[in-house]
Write the structure tokens for this entry.
Amino acid sequence: MPHLFERASTGRAKCRGCGLSIEKGEVRFGERIPNPYAEGETTLWFHPLCAAYKRPEPVLETLAQARESAPDPEALERAARGNSAHRRLPRIDGAERAPSSQAKCRSCHEPITRGALRIRLVFYEEGRFNPAGFVHLTCRADYFEGAGILAPLLHFSPDLSDGDRAELVRACGDAADPP
Ligand SMILES: [Zn+2]
Ligand SMILES: [Zn+2]
């Protein structure tokens, strides 16, 4: 079966991309993958925009085949094309203040100071998004090679304070993030 957009018949599924519930009646994206634990296929459910950022290729494939079933296909296509432009962009899992100074940055390998803004990363593997460490917000241009990260970064950071969101916008709205 191909991937699909469909209206959620229950409110029980959680989005693989952000971990939040997908409301009953809301359109969701289902990525069909070989079942890693058994015969046959299984479906990973996402909010459409979460999938566009974290699984851009299957979303683009589905938009090409069943565009009329997607909510706001232009916005989804823009998000998916943007994040498919660089192999590291789908790893973005949001921004946060480091709760301790224990983690080292994957880009510069220096510790990330407690309280500093850092970018959370995940690696997709066989239907799972595994935690894959952090990079300094200030190392974004090196790690993402200058690609724009602001939209997915804000999308996956719903818990950040308004002040921290404003700081992300200020930081990422610079020359490293051309519009
Ligand atoms: Zn989501
Ligand atoms: Zn760094």
Q: What stands out?
A: The chain has a mean pLDDT of 94.
